[in-house]
Every structure is written in C-alpha cells, then in structure tokens.
Design goal:
This is ROK family protein. The chain is 42% helix and 19% strand. It has 391 residues and is of the alpha/beta class.
Length: 391
C-alpha cells in the first residue's frame, strides 16, 4: 500500500495515533490515560486502543497506578526505554568516554577507559566494542538493544570519496573507509562527528541558545563550529572550522614570534608556556592552579589577547551574534576570560559579538554525541511504531 492510498485508512490513522501516544510518553514520562487524552487530543476509547496496541507491540508497559480524589485509581503507562538504545562515545589520544542513551534522554552513567599509550596497540573496532560493553554494563542495559553508536572525534571524516579520516590523535584507526568498516564490524548504525561540532550541538540543546552563534574550542587543539538556527555547518568535506591549521595573524608576532599557526598561538602548548611564564606549573592541564594563583588576572589578560586574534577569522567569515568559548582552556578561564576576550575584540576590530563561556561544562563533546544519538534512537523507535501500526 503506497503512502498516498494509505492516508485516511483506519490502519494509517491508528499508526499516527500510536506514534503520537508513544511520543508524549517519551517526552513527559509516565502518564495516565486521561493525561494522554489531553496531550494527544483523542477520546478515552481511542486512548485505550492506543495503549493496547503499544503494549501488544512491546513499546510501553503499565507502571503501577495512581490514586485519585474520586473514583478508582488510574493505570500509569510508561515507554519501554530498553527496546532501542544508543551509545555516545567521545575519545582522544589518551582516554575514551561513553554512556548509554535512550529515547527519553535518561541520564545514564558515564564510563571512562584509558587508551594504550603505544600507537601500535590502538584498534578502532576493539575500542568501540569495549565502549559499548562498558557503557551497557554501567547502565544495566542489554548491548543487543544498541542500534546506534555516535562517536565524537578530534578531527573529521570526509563524507565523500573513500571516507578519508583526518585526525592526528587516532593512531591505528583506518585512514580510509572508517565509517563503512565500523558499521560492518559493529553491525549497527555508526555516526562519526567532529568533536567541536558536537560541543556546539550540546550548546544549542542544553545551553538553551536561541541565536546564531559560533563556538571557539580551546583545548589541546583549536577549532570552531557554526550553528545557524539549529543547523550546524560542516562544510562540503566535513572540515569546516579547522582553524587551528590557519597561519597565525601577522599581528601575532608581537605576542609570540614563534607562532606559525593559530594552534601555535592558543593551543595547549602555547597556554602551558604562558602559564609557566607566570609561575604556574601545569602538569597535563595547561591552566592547573590558575584559580588560586595571584597571577590569574595577568594570565587571562594575555590569553584573551591571543584568543581574540584566533577568533578573527571566524568573526570575519561568519559575523555571529554570539561567540561561545568552549573546551578545557575556556572552562578554566570561565566568564572572566570571556569578558576579557569580548573587550579585546571590540577594542581591536570592527566586530562586536557577545562573548560568553560555554554553558555545557561537563563533557560537552559526549553531551553532544548523546543528544545526536538520542535523536536517532527516538526517531527510529517512533518510525517502528508507525510501521507496525500500518502493517
């Protein structure tokens, strides 16, 4: 039966209602039949039929009863979140982080795993299989229910040609055909996203931004992402925002004569050297001890000058209403660094964006991967309901 001939039939209407019923349970949590009637806009008999079909299909279950002021207690219905799951993964050269994701956005435990220091011991498939197993064990979830894996990487995969991987921090991973190889080996849908793009996605979804913004990532690497009306600009080949490779501005010579690229100017190595010049002793964290240091203001002032220069290419091309500073370096500087960067940009250029610290401080890349994986799991589950109803 084609879509055109199916519309308006009892089966099609039932599938639409079933999808709407499951959707409100995913969005609002356990509900009574009366509340489902109100949210979906159907009668009580229709709501009862929806619940019967969804229970029979294994999509929902009865979750106890709730007493009422008048009349008998009411059955509470809840979506079965164990039917379809995803796993979000964020990894770099040293550590892998992962968590289970479900269609309702439940907060599941985060697991961490140290990666081999020897590049020859790295294995993409093995690392992701471990991530899935460890995340599912921590969430007491069945790994067989995982349908989607969303991976945030420091780099990007060209979506065309041979799917070339561009990353300097994933030794041992296939440099071509990565996406196809992972889907074959894991037998699941695999999404591979740039880490900064995922941080921007988290900023939109969890930071509640409503304007167009650019996110400038300051950590071991330097990158940018642009979000316009909720849509990320990834570029034709997936490499939009890789500003760390750009030559350092000529005006940076007075700040750091040895800086050849934007990465040299504001990457972790440059920030660590700046910190040491002010008496800090970074060990792994470029700005360790900054919060309690009497040199904090001086460090942030000098760092802001560097960040303002690094941001100019982003501002010149995109002219965003807001510039969000994300990543470990930005998190250490917080709102004070953002204010100093804003002041410097407005004093030395023609642009005047609002500059703010990221609202997503805890594992922003993993948060973005969780948002994306959750959306895919939810959409697949709702599509399955519709297919079952029409069938």
């Amino acid at each position: 039966m084609t879509d055109a001939t199916a519309k308006g039939t009892p089966a099609w209407l039932g599938a639409v209602n079933d999808r709407a019923g499951l959707s409100v349970l995913l969005e609002h949590g356990p509900l009574t039949r009366q509340r489902i009637c109100e949210l979906v806009g159907v009668s009580k008999p229709t709501a009862s039929l929806i619940m019967q079909r969804l229970i029979a299909g294994g999509f929902i279950e009865e979750r106890g009863r709730v007493s009422r002021s008048a009349g008998p207690s009411a059955v509470v219905y809840a979506a079965r979140l164990d039917r379809s799951l995803g796993v979000a993964v964020d990894l770099d050269a040293r550590e892998l982080r992962a968590r289970v994701v479900d269609a309702a956005g439940t907060e599941h435990p985060l697991v961490r795993h140290d990666l081999p220091a020897d590049p020859g011991a790295r294995d993409a498939v093995g690392e992701l299989r471990h991530a899935i197993a460890a995340a599912c064990a921590a969430a007491s979830a069945d790994a067989a229910a995982v349908r989607t894996v969303c991976i945030g990487i420091p780099g990007y995969v060209d979506p065309g040609r041979d799917g070339a991987l561009f990353s300097e921090t994933l030794p041992g991973w296939p440099t071509t055909g990565l996406h196809a190889a992972l889907e074959r080996a894991l037998d699941r849908e695999v999404l591979i996203e740039n880490d900064v793009d995922l941080a921007a996605l988290a900023e939109r979804a969890l930071g509640e931004r409503s304007d167009a913004f650019a996110l400038l990532w300051l950590g071991n690497g330097v990158g940018a992402a642009f979000d316009a009306a909720g849509e990320l600009h990834r570029g034709s080949f997936g490499g939009a925002g890789e500003i760390g490779f750009l030559p350092a501005p000529a005006t940076a010579v007075g700040i750091d004569p040895d800086a050849r690229t934007v990465q040299d100017l504001v990457g972790a190595g440059a920030v660590a050297r700046l910190a040491r010049a002010h008496g800090l002793e970074p060990d792994g964290d470029a700005l360790a001890g900054l919060a309690d240091s009497p040199a904090r203001d001086a460090v942030l002032r000098e760092l802001a000058e560097r960040v303002a220069l690094a941001a100019l290419p982003v501002l010149a091309v995109l002219d965003p209403a807001a510039l969000v500073l994300g990543g470990p370096t930005a998190a250490a500087g917080g709102a004070d660094l953002a204010a100093a960067v804003q002041e410097r940009i407005r004093a030395t250029s023609r642009w005047y964006p609002e500059v703010v610290a990221s609202a997503v401080v805890e594992a922003p890349v993993l948060a973005g991967a969780s948002v994306l994986a959750g959306r895919r799991v939810r959409r697949a589950l709702l599509d399955e309901v519709a297919e079952v109803g029409e069938g």
